[in-house]
TrEMBL record:
This is Fucosyltransferase. It comes from the Eukaryota. Its EC number is 2.4.1.-. PANTHER family: ALPHA- 1,3 -FUCOSYLTRANSFERASE, ALPHA-(1,3)-FUCOSYLTRANSFERASE 4. Its main location: Golgi. Residues 161-322 form the Fucosyltransferase C-terminal domain. Keywords: Glycoprotein, Glycosyltransferase, Golgi apparatus, Inflammatory response, Membrane, Signal-anchor, Transferase, Transmembrane, Transmembrane helix. The keyword Transferase applies.
Length: 326
């Protein structure tokens, strides 16, 4: 009994010893990797040669401007020039934005900062919309010709198996387009795709391929703003579906697409009459054809993000080089 107890004690002791040795080893390893406060100094003196470093402070912390220090005088750190975004007088800054004003908060901060604007708005200095039509007969400029896709009057598009599709990524109950959808679905079948609906097929060109099976496509913008007409419209056009639009005014849409090409939701006083009209078109190919005939005379060009945008800026800068802008 006593022997058993002493064996137990010695076994306990040996495991304590192993644990202690293990702990000391671990400590040793940890100490090896602990940062040594004194190793900071040699790092500085290594670069204490004659080389010059210019450090750009891109943004002052918390946006509060502070006078930049003189590293040599204060800390004996020589060869350092601190600078905060120097702006040569001749350099032009371009404001490029493809969101709507509703999703671009805090713009007032940039008042008087930029020289040129590049947006989807026709009154931008550099105007490049999400897409545009090119009349077929006109000899378009090189870039437009290379990427423009001719539209066809598809007789088969009159016999599409499905009625209305809607692809939406940012579903929000407060949006007018969601309210419109709730109304419309009381009168006809609307197939919803995207985060809030059925999954989208994978691959590039997936939306256009999907929408090609539908007669109508809901091209509903997230907010109504001048010229804010996005790829939603052009996806419908490319797919040969008739776009049902909600966004800026009808007149605004008609600057981008011939009037028979679309159905502004606002043309109808309520969704019941609107839904009935779509169903009537579905049953009435001759009426429907009137909304697709225009296609034969146009090609569509969708500038690709962001390659064409950068290159278009470059062309614009070349044109305005040496000229004051604003
Ligand atoms: C999504 O919708 C909400 C509500 O309208 C809006 O606050 C948010 O900015 C939107 N997000 C995008 C990426 O558009
Ligand atoms: C919808 O509008 C049509 C005419 O534009 C009208 O006859 C009908 O009563 C309206 N329906 C509702 C529910 O307001
Ligand atoms: C660009 O805009 C800034 C800020 O308004 C202005 O100071 C600068 O002179 C402008 N530059 C040119 C080249 O127009």
């Amino acid at each position: 009994m006593r022997r058993a107890a002493s064996r137990l004690v010695s076994r306990t002791c040996s495991s304590v010893c192993v644990a202690t040795v293990g702990f000391v080893l671990l400590l040793g390893v940890c100490l090896l990797y602990l940062p040594d406060p004194f190793s900071l100094e040699p790092l500085v003196s290594v670069s204490d040669d004659n080389s010059e470093v210019t450090l750009l402070i891109w943004m002052h912390p918390f946006g509060q401007y502070r006078k930049l220090p003189h590293c040599g005088g204060l800390y004996g750190i020589e060869g350092c020039t601190l600078t905060d975004k120097p702006r040569p007088r001749a350099q032009k800054w371009v404001w490029m934005n493809y969101e709507s004003p509703a999703h671009t908060p805090g713009l007032w901060r940039f008042e008087g900062v930029f020289n040129l604007t590049m947006t989807y708005r026709t009154d931008s200095d550099i105007f490049l919309p999400y897409g545009y039509l090119i009349p077929r007969g006109r000899r378009a400029k090189g870039l437009q010709n290379r990427y423009a896709r001719p539209l066809h009057v598809l007789s088969r598009s009159l016999l599409r198996p499905r009625l209305v599709a809607w692809v939406i990524s940012n579903w929000s109950e407060s949006q007018a387009r969601v309210a419109f959808y709730y109304q419309l679905r009381r009168y006809l079948q609307v197939d919803v795709f995207g985060r809030a609906g059925r999954p989208l097929p994978a691959g590039s060109g997936n939306v256009v391929r999907l929408v090609s099976r539908y007669q109508f496509y809901l091209a509903l913008e997230n907010s109504p703003h001048t010229d804010y007409i996005t790829e939603k419209l052009w996806n419908a056009v490319l797919a040969g579906a008739v776009p049902v639009v909600l966004g800026p005014s009808r007149q605004n849409y008609e600057r981008f697409l011939p009037p028979p090409g679309l159905y502004p939701r606002r043309r109808f006083s309520n969704c019941s009459s609107f839904g009935r009209y779509l169903l009537m078109l579905k049953r009435n190919p001759i009426q429907l054809k009137r909304h697709l005939d225009w296609r034969g005379s146009y090609s569509v060009h969708q500038p690709s993000f962001w390659a064409e945008h950068y290159c278009t800026v470059c062309r614009a800068v070349k044109k305005t080089r040496g000229k004051a802008t604003r």
